[in-house]
Specification:
single chain; 4-stranded antiparallel β-sheet
């Protein structure tokens, strides 16, 4: 990622725009609702005010009609007495014609109110003046002016509030995303296996937990890279020796002329090369198995099938009896109890083969190898014992490490690779079990595998 990409505030801009748009929508919605409610309230108050003016005229008429006797005289008197600043009061005969009083005619100029206005009619008095009506002309100018003033406040206030909120949102988003920017810049500078990690300001918040998980991922990647480098170095070291021996034998054969080299010498060289190639092939097979182990990891298998460990071991015995007879080793199956487990038949066969091969290699010459399968405390226990020199207590903690071979093992067999027990330990971990080494009753080593019963 380039520095330009790191510095682009795309998320910050999107958050700010989203925040401002949301606030604008909320404010516009609130202003619309408030404007409608205000309009309804002002209209209701206007109508109540007009009705109150008509009621005042009606009340005044009911009081004065007893004194002036006639409706016309009373209305003439009221017209001269009741004058409203923003209202024009008129009266209409029962036939709908306009009543013109002398007081109104005496005015030099007719009374005018601001437009627009609204005319409302009310009955004057159904008992004292049947059919007569009061007509009130009221100005709407004040109400509309107030509404226009409120609309101007909304028109200028809402954009100002949104702009202010956008500026504040931009600043707050920048402060919030600052750790992200720091982590992105640090991630761009992290080199493989450099040990550098993302900076974390607060490990308890969401970004801090994300950074912590990412740093843990980097730790695992560094560990995997280190393990891979060590694996390649160890593999190269282990393969270099047999390859060097094969090259020496081939060079020796090339130096000998066709006439001087006897058939026996050529056969000896070919047999030696065949042995070396078999050993290298075995090592390559083990290396490939470990590579698959690294790819699969140590998690317990989820696609395991139900099988019986005792039956699997019984099926493996005929494959190993010829090698035992060739070495003069007595292979004893002490016990095969019924032990159902969840596992992979191929991997468990490989596990049994690794332990038996290890016992054959490091047991006593023409000795005894004893094998048993038992169900013990809810676990399937596989034990393989030999009568060799055993594993010293100081080596038992590392005997399952890759390429590790103790001093006793190196003296006993120089052709080992130190990978078999590492593969066995991985297979056991994949099945959710444990593998340990102890002293055997036969005098050598006892490898004990425990796995959960199905």
């Amino acid at each position: 990622m380039s520095p330009v990409d790191v510095s682009r505030p795309r998320i910050r801009l999107r958050f700010t725009v989203l925040y401002a748009a949301t606030l604008l929508l909320v404010l516009v919605s609130a202003a619309t609702v408030l404007r409608f409610a205000l309009r309804v309230t002002l209209q209701r108050e206007f109508e109540e005010s007009v009705r109150a003016s008509a009621g005042l005229v009606t009340q005044f008429f009911s009081t004065e009609v007893n004194e002036y006797r006639t409706i016309e005289a009373t209305l003439t008197h009221i017209s001269g007495e009741l004058v409203f600043e923003d209202r024009i009061i008129r009266y209409r005969h029962p036939d709908g014609t306009l009543f013109r009083s002398r007081a109104a005619a005496a005015r030099s100029a007719p009374m005018r109110i601001a437009t627009p206005m609204q005319s409302v009619r009310f009955p004057l008095n159904a008992d004292l003046a049947p059919g007569w009506q009061v007509e009130v002309d009221a100005s709407l100018a004040n109400m509309q002016a107030l509404q226009a003033r409120i609309d101007r406040w909304f028109l200028f206030g809402i954009p100002l509030l949104v702009l202010t909120a956008a500026i504040a949102g931009w600043w707050l988003t920048g402060r919030t995303l600052q750790p992200v920017g720091d982590m992105a810049a640090a991630a761009a500078r992290i080199a493989p296996a450099s040990g550098a990690r993302l900076p974390i300001s607060d490990p308890q918040d969401e970004l801090g937990r994300l950074g912590t998980r990412f740093n843990a991922l980097l730790d695992r990647l560094d560990g995997a890279l280190s393990q891979q480098r060590q694996f390649l170095a160890d593999a190269a070291h282990e393969l270099r020796t047999p390859i060097a021996r094969m090259r020496a034998r081939v060079e020796l054969a090339l130096l000998q002329s066709a006439d001087s080299a006897s058939v026996a010498e050529r056969s000896e060289i070919l047999h030696a090369l065949d042995g070396e190639l078999r050993a290298v092939t075995h090592q390559v097979d083990e290396l490939l198995q470990l590579a698959r182990a690294d790819a699969a990891g140590d998690e317990i298998m989820t696609n395991a099938t139900r099988l019986f460990l005792d039956d699997l071991v019984a099926d493996e015995m005929p494959r190993w009896q010829p090698q035992a007879q060739q070495l003069g080793v007595t292979l004893v199956v002490e016990s095969l109890e019924e032990t159902p487990v969840q596992g992979d038949a191929l991997l468990l066969s490989r596990l049994c083969g690794v332990l038996l091969d290890n016992a054959f290699r490091y047991g006593a010459a023409a000795g005894t190898v004893r094998l048993s399968v038992r169900a013990l405390h809810g676990r399937a226990v596989l034990t393989v014992e030999d009568d060799g020199p055993g594993v010293p207590p100081d080596d038992r903690g590392r005997v399952f490490d890759r390429f590790y071979r103790g001093e006793t093992a190196r003296h006993k067999r120089a052709d080992g690779s130190g990978l078999g027990l590492a593969i066995a330990a991985w297979i056991v971990r994949r099945h959710g079990g444990t593998i340990t080494v102890h002293d055997s009753a036969l005098g050598g080593a006892e490898f004990r595998v425990g796995m959960p019963l199905a």
